[in-house]
Amino acid sequence: MTAMAHEPMPTQDDILLEGFLALETPTGFRAELIEGEIAVTPPPDGDHEDYLSLVFEQVMQMSATAMQFSGHKGLVLSHAAGQPADHVIPDATIAPRALRLFRGAPPWMPSDGVAMVVEVTSSKPHKDRVAKRHGYARAGIPLYLLVDRSKATITLFSDPSGDDYVGNNTAPLGKPLPLPAPFSFELETTDFL
């Protein structure tokens, strides 16, 4: 009798990840794998993009460190125990320009070197408020900026530890929000109103 080597059986997580990576979405829609669930998001509305452009403009003009900004860049994040790695597409991914993280990066890149991610809430704010926040913290992304349109607030989460951020600073839209190094300026939110 001869023993034959077999490929290991794929796990449920392997099957989920493979199915997710093969998923085709309609033009403009984004598919993400967040905490073991596939989320498909429609294209953002104009107000969403306006808020994002206001953040982008200030970061590029006022940061103490020259920054690179990528809108809708796929990131692979550390996973929660027993789940495949999260595959998320932040509204904005910001990194020091000197690192040139986006040059030659694959469609789904690791988050190493990312200084801050930005999300502007849309029709399903819970994912931005909780699930994505936990994923960004697990990945060790130093700063997470959340523009919460329905609450009319902007929150900077900082100091990732385990599944969450230890620090957070919330300001109502219309009030400035200090951003620490490497940005080192106050984000002005008056134009958000």
Automatic annotation (TrEMBL):
Molecular-function annotations in GO: endonuclease activity
UniProt domain Putative restriction endonuclease: residue ranges: 18-187
Tree of life domain: Bacteria
Pfam families: Uma2 (PF05685)
Keywords: Endonuclease, Hydrolase, Nuclease
Family matches, as PANTHER family: SLL1072 PROTEIN, SLR1083 PROTEIN
UniProt protein name: Uma2 family endonuclease
